């Protein structure tokens, strides 16, 4: 650089034109890191969503090529859904799941408040309460289907001890769905509990102290001081519970297999039955159900994304 | 030089023989034979592994690759297995259960093997393998359905094997009065209810009407169908079936028979090993044919399990040779023996195992099934009709009053499925 005698063609290093990557480093690098994620997300999530839309316009049994074996029927699958009683039952059951599954949040909060104290061995108690979330849904389903067995199941033994008739919880079409939701609440409550326990660690002791000095106690303290500070935990608990309710499948498959006579199906299970199960050869119809389920989920996911975006924007200002 | 020449000759010979798919081409088979089997229960699994090993040993230049898939899982996995990189030979079921795969061109047409005598002794069972006038595989085992009952309890109550429906009902009344249920059934997975419908319908209206219903020619709103359900209702109303059956699988309903809470079970012969394992001796269990209702020739359910060649098979010659091997009289006797599958051999030249139930079943099917042999509700009816149908049957068993509604639904399904 300081060498004046050097030929004029040798441009100083700092002024030499930089490579394309060097020039755009700041803009490009994040995308490079994102590529694997974007790639897998589109192949396994985004593209299949559009494929579902596409397949739902066909009558196709899932064997062979859709272009050759499938028959284009337009919106006919959707028209059939409207008059399909099993679809209606599944939709209502999904609604029951959505509403009743939310009970996991107050229940989880209650247990978390109860366990949020310093007693000898509290870690052990906490992990015992968390245990149902650790075991697989399939095992939960099996355990509960034994628990509910008519005559010999634990629950019915207890009922009979108190002089009640034996109830076939999973065999009665009016009761079965609620019985499965109750089984689902067991691990979901544990999940909500762990979210609240971590939330409670972050509660500001000074604010509680201040509230105490002002005479706040009991549920007033809980409602006006603790809960507002637990808002992030509540939000996450809502998200995972609602998504969990809409994805309910394993428990139904294990405990009733959709029965008795289809009364415990939800949309995801009905979709599986129509398109992929032993007797299911209607890919188009199944896809139409999947699309409806997707649209329902989209409402919630859209809302969650919006509120997250809103919170972030507020945090920046 | 001469060695080279010889092996060259052998090679040409093998390709020529393979081209004609002749049994004598055996020892010249080469490459790999890929089999996916659904025989996952312990005894069938051992039988299948034995088959593969023996076949492998017979053909020094051939490697047999056997993959055993869980039997229930295979029912939905088969479509993936056949679509991408298909194996050479697979297991499946006869009759209409083959339909989707035949229509999609995934099973290989092996009609020529039946036509040119490659499969001697299979003439009688050919019908179950025929769709659209061609044959799509070979059977390897079948079994009878019927009423398996507690002989000791029948003796205790002074009952005899019934031959007519009136006797059946009279027997059942005695059984119910003794505080037991007449029939165990677990309808959680629906198909067991299909067995009851098959028999009641075949006995009430005959085999031909049953098949008309299966092929969509007859309507579910037909009065004859109602007659079948009326007969069924007679049994339901008298408390013949165990309670809460919609919650149990067929295995979970077995203890009712074992403990004597129910005296009989309409089921396939596959239930017998389970009853024996549970401690019942052959003096305690016996078998009778489903009794006569109307004066029509008796039709029977005898589901057949099968082998097929995938149309995308890589080693077709070996696959064909394997099908011949499996269905040959000797192998049939061996794999259906009491130590292996414990079922009925499909080859007419095989011998039936010396087993009380197999002998009775074989006699029933060969001498007293003049109406015809059906496969089973979910194999004779198209998949979608079968699934809607069995759900309706289960509902009927729990709420017989819903019959009108159930039949309307089934009729709507029929109109769509067979269009």
Automatic annotation (TrEMBL), chain A:
Cellular location(s): Cell membrane
Pfam families tied to this protein: BPD_transp_1
Q: Where in this chain does the record put each ABC transmembrane type-1 domain?
A: 94-306
Q: Which residue ranges does UniProt annotate as crossing the membrane?
A: 26-50, 97-116, 128-149, 175-200, 221-246, 285-306
> Has keyword Membrane?
yes
Keyword set, alphabetical order: Cell membrane, Membrane, Transmembrane, Transmembrane helix, Transport
Task: Identify its membrane topology class.
Answer: Multi-pass membrane protein
- Would you tell me the protein name for this molecule? L-arabinose transport system permease protein AraP
According to its UniProt entry, this protein's organism is Pontivivens insulae
TrEMBL record, chain B:
> Which SUPFAM superfamilies does its entry note?
Periplasmic binding protein-like II
Q: Where in the cell is it found?
A: Periplasm
Supply the Gene3D superfamilies for this chain.
Periplasmic binding protein-like II
InterPro entries named among the record's database cross-references: Bact_solute-bd_prot1 (IPR050490), SBP (IPR006059)
Record keywords = Signal
Q: Which superkingdom, per the lineage?
A: Bacteria
GO CC, sorted alphabetically, is: periplasmic space
Q: Where is the signal peptide?
A: 1-23
Decide whether keyword Membrane is in the record: no
Presence of the UniProt keyword Signal in the record: yes
Primary localization class, coarse: periplasm
Q: Which residues cross the membrane?
A: none
**Membership in a protein family:** Belongs to the bacterial solute-binding protein 1 family.
This one is known as Multiple sugar-binding protein
Query: From which organism does this entry originate?
Result: Pontivivens insulae
Q: Which gene encodes it?
A: msmE
């Amino acid at each position: 650089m300081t060498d004046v005698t050097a030929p004029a063609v040798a441009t100083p290093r700092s002024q030499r034109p930089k490579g394309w990557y060097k020039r755009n480093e700041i803009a490009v690098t994040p995308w490079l890191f994102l590529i694997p994620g974007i790639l897998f997300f589109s192949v396994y999530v985004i593209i299949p969503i559009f494929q579902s839309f596409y397949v739902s316009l066909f009558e196709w049994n899932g064997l062979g090529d859709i272009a050759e074996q499938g028959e284009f029927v337009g919106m006919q699958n959707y028209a059939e859904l409207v008059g399909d009683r099993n679809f209606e039952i599944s939709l209502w059951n999904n609604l029951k799941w959505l509403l009743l599954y939310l009970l996991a949040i107050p229940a989880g909060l209650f247990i978390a408040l109860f366990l949020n104290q310093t007693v000898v061995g509290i870690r052990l108690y906490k992990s015992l309460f968390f245990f149902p979330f650790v075991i697989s849904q399939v095992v939960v389903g099996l355990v509960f289907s034994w628990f509910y067995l008519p005559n010999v199941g634990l629950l019915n033994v207890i009922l009979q001890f108190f002089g009640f008739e034996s109830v076939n919880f999973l065999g009665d079409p009016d009761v079965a769905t609620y019985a499965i939701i109750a089984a689902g609440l067991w691990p979901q409550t544990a999940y909500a509990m762990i979210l609240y326990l971590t939330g409670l660690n972050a509660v500001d002791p000074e604010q509680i102290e201040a509230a105490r000095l002002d005479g706040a106690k009991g549920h007033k303290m809980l409602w006006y001081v603790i809960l507002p500070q637990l808002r992030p935990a509540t939000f996450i608990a809502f998200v995972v519970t609602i998504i969990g309710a809409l994805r309910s499948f394993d428990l139904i498959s294990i405990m009733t297999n959709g029965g008795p006579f289809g009364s415990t199906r939800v949309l995801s299970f009905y979709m599986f039955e129509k398109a992929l199960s032993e007797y299911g050869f209607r890919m188009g119809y199944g896809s139409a159900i999947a699309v409806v389920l997707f649209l329902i989920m989209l409402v919630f996911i859209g809302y969650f994304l919006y509120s997250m975006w809103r919170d972030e924007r507020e945090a920046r200002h | 030089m001469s060695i080279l020449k010889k092996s060259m000759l052998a090679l040409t010979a093998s390709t020529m023989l393979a081209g004609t798919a002749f049994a004598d081409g055996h020892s010249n088979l080469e490459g790999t034979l890929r089999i996916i089997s659904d025989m996952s229960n312990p005894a069938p699994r051992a039988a299948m592994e034995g088959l593969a090993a023996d076949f492998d040993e017979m053909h020094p230049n051939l490697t047999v690759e056997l993959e055993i898939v869980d039997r229930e899982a295979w029912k939905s996995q088969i479509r993936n297995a056949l679509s991408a990189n298909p194996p050479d030979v697979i297991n499946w079921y006869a009759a209409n259960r083959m339909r989707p795969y035949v229509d999609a061109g995934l099973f290989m047409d092996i009609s020529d093997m039946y036509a040119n005598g490659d499969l001697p002794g299979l003439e009688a069972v050919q019908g179950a393998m025929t769709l659209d006038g061609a044959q799509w595989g070979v059977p390897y085992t079948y079994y009878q359905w019927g009423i398996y009952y507690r002989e000791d309890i029948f003796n205790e109550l002074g009952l005899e094997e019934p031959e007519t429906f009136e006797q059946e009902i009279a027997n059942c009344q005695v059984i119910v009065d003794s505080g037991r249920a007449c029939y165990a059934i677990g309808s959680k997975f629906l198909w067991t209810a299909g067995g009851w419908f098959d028999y009641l319908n075949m006995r009430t209206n005959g085999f031909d009407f049953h098949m008309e219903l299966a092929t969509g020619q007859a309507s579910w709103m037909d009065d004859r169908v109602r007659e079948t359900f009326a007969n069924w209702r007679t049994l339901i109303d008298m408390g013949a079936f165990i309670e809460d059956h919609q919650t149990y699988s067929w295995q979970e309903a077995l203890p009712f028979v074992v403990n004597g809470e129910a005296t009989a079970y309409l089921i396939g012969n596959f239930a017998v090993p389970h009853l024996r394992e549970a401690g019942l001796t052959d003096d305690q269990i016996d078998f009778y044919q489903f009794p006569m209702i109307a004066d029509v020739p008796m039709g029977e359910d005898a589901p057949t399990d099968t082998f097929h060649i995938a149309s995308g098979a890589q080693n077709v010659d070996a696959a064909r040779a394997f099908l011949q091997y499996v269905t040959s009289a000797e192998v049939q006797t061996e794999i259906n023996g009491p130590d292996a599958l414990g079922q009925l051999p499909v080859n007419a030249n095989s011998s039936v195992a010396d087993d009380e139930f197999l002998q009775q079943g074989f006699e029933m099917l060969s001498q007293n099934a003049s109406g015809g042999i059906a496969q089973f509700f979910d194999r004779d009816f198209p998949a979608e009709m079968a699934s809607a149908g069995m759900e309706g049957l289960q509902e009927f068993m729990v709420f017989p009053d819903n019959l009108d509604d159930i039949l309307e639904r089934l009729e709507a399904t029929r109109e769509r499925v067979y269009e």
